[in-house]
Amino acid sequence: MMILFIFGLIVPLSFIIMALWNNILVAVLHVTVINFWQALGIFTLSKILFGGFPGSPGWGRHGRGRDRMESMRNKWMNMTPEEKTNFKNDWRNRCGKSPRTSSAEATATE
Length: 110
Fold this sequence. Notes:
With 110 residues, the protein is mainly alpha-helical. It has five helices and no strands.
C-alpha cells in the first residue's frame, strides 16, 4: 500500500514539475523542453540536494543548523566587549573591507 501511495505522489509531482518547467522556464530562460523522465530526475535531484529523504536529514534540517546557531550565540554572549570588537574587525578584514575607525580615532591619528 505504501508503494502505491509513494507512486501516487511522485507521478503527479513530476508532471507538475514538467508543466512548470515547460511553461515558465522555456519562455523566460529559453531552456529546452523536458519530458516526464527528466522532470522525475530533477525532482529526485532536488530532494537529494535540498530536502533529503525520509530518515536522512537534508541541508540545515533536524536541528543541525539550530545547534550551530545556538553555539555561536552562546559564544558571542560570553565574549568581553574587547573580544567582540576584535571579532568584528577580523570579519571586516576577511570580507575585504577595512576596519572602521571612529571620528575620534581618525582625528587622533592626524
